[in-house]
Design brief:
Number of strands: 11
Strand content: 5-15%
Keywords: Hydrolase, Protease, Serine protease
Family: Belongs to the peptidase S8 family.
GO molecular function, one term: serine-type endopeptidase activity
Order of helices and strands: HHHHEHEEHHHHHHHEEHEHEEEEEHHH
Largest sheet: 7 strands, parallel
CATH topology of the largest domain: Rossmann fold
Helix content: 40-55%
Structural class: alpha/beta
Protein name: Peptidase, S8/S53 family
EC number: 3.4.21.-
Number of domains: 2
Number of helices: 17
Distance between the termini: 45 Å
CATH superfamily of the largest domain: Peptidase S8/S53 domain
């Protein structure tokens, strides 16, 4: 890596020298030679950078290893230790995948899917659990009749701003100074990026008045044919008003953006069209209905959780498929390096994550579904910074704790200190104490240190797992790689499932303690699967 860096700097130095030397050549030869050398050098730099990019052949499955250059989670050594000791899985562990869904037709995952043997596909609830046709799991983001599946939801901040906008759209800061809800509304408006848009709309509205004033003024000029007047000719128009120069200046940027040959009437029409579209978007904040309401449940009632449908394969299920593959994929012989960590696990698919921020109600419902239907480990590669119903989710996590279910959550990918910024779910009780069945996972790099993209926090993040160039499977048995805490979390979930399968007496609380206490001391908290299985065996002797 150091040699590559020096080579890159060396090429840039050559580039600078050659550019300097070329200035001494004659003009025509200078142009040709500069193009040739610039292209050659940039091509060389590009090739060198590509050479530094990890390839599947070398890096697929690196997260299972631990060595001098690739410091993964030491999973291969853990499996070797178990085999040497004659320790085999003693019970089937179901892992709940709370995510975007899954491609159930992916061959590498078909054998790993949890099967509700009391249920059959269709509209009938054979086992009486309240979810008709839940053979492999449930979809909390679809309508009961199957006519709509929600795939995109935007940010929670925007949804909260949208909810409060009708109430405070005309409010003044001074009148609402003592109102905490108004302060929250302003916070959401800023976080959602709406402030800039509203200011831009206000400025555009003022600009439209200027344009209309100019249009009216032009029509008073006897020798100006406004129907055919080109924008380039505006400079030659005699000023019809005292504000003409200022008005032209106000529209200068838009006039310069217009295509060559545009006439004044066409320009006016274009500006009116763009302004109407902005207005429609702002009115949509108030009038466009949140499609999540189509599910028909009471979003404020955690007990109203029997909604959705059994369809798990929907648009945007790549994320969930990839996460599932890290845990239990069984690829063909040509892709053995992409195999899941613990293929013996059974994957219960619970769809509750759209593109954007998940809804608290759906996460709470999904946790309870997974717990009630036998999951002993739940993977949640999800999270957000605003949670209007945080208590609802925390109560579901507490329910999982009472049922001895371990929950593993991704820490997020914004490289923020989440000790100082709340990251949801917080998994805390009314006194602010973290539930002992909840483990939050950050991402590590090849060296076993905190990845530059991962959130962190001495208290908020419990353990790190590899989160860069992690190989897995996508819908249609396409093999690829990804990065982030979303792919680090299922590595921990896999090891947790392995422990709960080989050592079934271990509780969720104990498994968390083992995983956290067995991290490598010479790292930022990197998971050490071998040390974890040794500790588990020692406890269970």
């Amino acid at each position: 890596m150091f040699q590559s860096s020096y080579f890159y700097l060396f090429l840039l130095r050559i580039l600078y020298i050659n550019q300097t030397r070329l200035h001494t050549l004659d003009k025509n030869r200078n142009i040709v030679m500069r193009k040739y050398i610039l292209c050659s050098l940039f091509a060389a730099v590009a090739l060198q950078l590509c050479a530094q990019t990890p390839s599947y052949a070398r890096y697929a499955g690196w997260h299972k290893l631990y060595g001098d250059t690739l410091r993964g989670a030491n999973i291969a050594a853990a499996l070797q230790y178990l085999a040497k000791q004659g320790i085999k899985p003693r019970r089937t562990v179901v892992v709940g995948i709370l995510d975007s869904g899954i491609d159930t037709a992916t061959v590498a995952l078909k054998d790993a899917l949890w099967v509700n043997r009391k249920e059959r596909p269709g509209r009938k609830d054979c086992d009486g659990n309240g979810y008709a046709g839940d053979v492999h799991g449930w979809n909390f983001l679809g309508t009961a009749d199957g006519t709509f599946d929600m795939t995109s939801a935007g940010t929670e901040e925007y949804r909260e701003f949208k909810r409060l906008y009708p109430r405070y759209k005309h409010a003044s800061d001074s009148a609402e100074a003592a109102n905490p809800e108004y302060a929250y509304y302003r916070q959401m408006r800023k976080a959602a990026g709406i402030n800039r848009y509203l200011l831009y709309y206000k400025a555009t509205k003022a600009k439209m008045k200027v344009m209309e004033r100019m249009d009216s003024a032009l029509k008073t000029l006897p020798n100006v044919h406004t129907d055919t007047l080109r924008l380039a000719s505006l400079a030659r128009v005699p000023a019809p008003t005292t504000t003409w120069a200022d008005d032209c200046q106000a529209l200068l940027v838009d006039l310069m953006k217009a295509k060559e040959g545009t006439t004044w009437p066409a320009f006016v029409a274009q500006q009116h069209s763009a302004f109407r579209l902005m207005g429609q978007r702002i009115r949509g904040i108030e009038h466009d209905v949140d499609k999540r309401l189509l599910m028909g449940d009471d979003m404020g009632d955690a007990a109203d959780r029997f909604y959705g449908n059994a369809r798990l394969t929907v648009e945007g299920c790549d994320h969930g498929t990839f996460v599932a593959g890290i845990i239990a994929a069984k690829p063909d012989a040509a892709h053995r390096a992409y195999a899941g960590i613990f293929p013996e696990a059974r994957l219960m698919i619970v769809r509750c994550v759209p593109d954007g921020d998940e809804y608290d109600k759906d996460v709470a419902s999904a946790i309870r579904y997974a717990v009630d239907n036998g999951a002993k480990v739940i993977n949640m590669s999800l999270g957000k910074y605003t949670s209007p119903q945080a208590d609802m989710v925390n109560r579901a996590i507490a329910y999982a704790a009472r049922k001895d279910v371990l929950i593993v959550q991704a820490a997020g990918n914004h490289h923020r200190d989440i000790d100082s910024v709340a990251y949801y779910p917080t998994a805390t009780d009314a006194q602010g104490r973290r539930f002992d069945n909840f483990i939050r996972v950050g991402a590590s790099d090849f060296a076993g240190h905190l990845s530059s993209l991962s959130n962190y926090g001495r208290n908020a993040v419990d353990v790190l797992a590899p989160g860069e160039y992690i190989a897995s499977v996508l819908p249609g048995d396409v093999y690829d790689f990804s990065q982030g805490t979303s792919v680090a979390a299922p590595i921990v979930s896999s090891v947790a499932a392995l422990l709960r399968s080989c050592f079934p007496k271990l509780s969720a609380k104990t498994v968390k303690a083992i995983l956290v206490q067995s991290v490598r001391k010479d790292s930022d908290g990197l998971l050490d699967a071998e040390k974890a299985v040794r500790a588990a065996r020692a406890l269970c002797r």
